[in-house]
């Protein structure tokens, strides 16, 4: 079907992000230095956003639909699932608002991700794909945009191109009052890469980053227990970032990998402090790997082939190691995510997914593939960017 057909289907079953039901959020702060009236006018924001998704990102104005062991995005030429927009006006000054932004106060500034999940029990869930929360100040000193979007639609690169297109369209409407003829600066991207050519049947891989659990037992495992949940804020200043970047260059790892090491060490140090008896227990490090460059994926597709990398050590080992040593472990874990490993990971997930559907259809309990992030301590890592 063409994009102008009454109904168009776009399969997302070849992107495992939908299995995770993963929503990503960003907080964007804009200072109104001139105290201009109508700064980030709400009607202009909503109008430009709706035009953008209806005209250029039609799947984003569609609906998820699960059927026949596959999940599609369905969108129409005459019916739209426009992104929901909520607003709030706060009685606080610019510095106070900026502290909330710096501390990543998602509860205050970001629209909550839907609790619903794409399931075959409800084949037509009305789940928004992108949501916006606009925070104004009574003093008119600044505006904050909180954006939450479903990761099966776009990766970080595509998201920022989407935001740049929205900004350009908003500016055009502000200056001209109508869209007329307007070309967005970046091509709209809503296509997933084909990675089937990476498949090598002569190579087999273990996938410890995923575990199989009995659904009936899984819900009980995550019920609150007697251990106290503790939050520790890891604030990394600009100066600390610069030092970490230099350390990363010195040992041949990326800044992301050394940042993961800081977080992994922080989690396990706190866990060990709370309960010294768990030192010999396993600590499974997992991270999402965006393989756009590794897989040779161009920027003309909206989502990179994303997979999970893992490394297993004991809690005590990670707590005792230096950050640079842990970064090397993370580097090795991520380094194994070649195109062949990526293809194997996808095939593994799809096979498990089909087995789940078969078990469900035939009344078997079966097992469910899960990524488990259950810790006795939760660590929130806040990174300063300015």
Task: Describe this structure in a few short sentences.
The protein is α+β, with helices and mostly antiparallel strands and 386 residues long. It folds into two domains: 7-176, Chloramphenicol Acetyltransferase; 200-383, 2-Layer Sandwich (Chloramphenicol Acetyltransferase).
Sheet-strand content, in percent, reads 15-25%
CATH class of the largest domain: Alpha Beta
The CATH architecture name of the largest domain reads 2-Layer Sandwich
Rg, please?
A: 23 Å
Mean pLDDT: 77
Distance between the termini: 46 Å
Give the total of domains: 2
Write out the strand line-up for the largest beta sheet, numbering strands in chain order.
Answer: 2-7-6-5
* Number of beta-strand segments: 13
The H-and-E topology, N to C, reads as EHEHEEEHHEEHEHEHHEEHHHEE
Q: Please name the CATH topology of the largest domain.
A: Chloramphenicol Acetyltransferase
- What's the helix count? 11
Main β-sheet, in a few words?
A: 4 strands, mixed
Walk me through what this model shows.
This protein is α+β, with helices and mostly antiparallel strands and 386 residues long. It folds into 2 domains: 7-176, Chloramphenicol acetyltransferase-like domain (Chloramphenicol Acetyltransferase); 200-383, 2-Layer Sandwich (Chloramphenicol Acetyltransferase), CATH 3.30.559. Helices cover 35% and strands 23% of the residues. It contains 11 helices and 13 strands. The strands form 5 sheets. A 4-stranded mixed β-sheet has the order 2-7-6-5, covered by helices on one side. The radius of gyration is 23 Å and the shape is globular. Mean pLDDT is 77; it is low at 218-226 and 371-381.
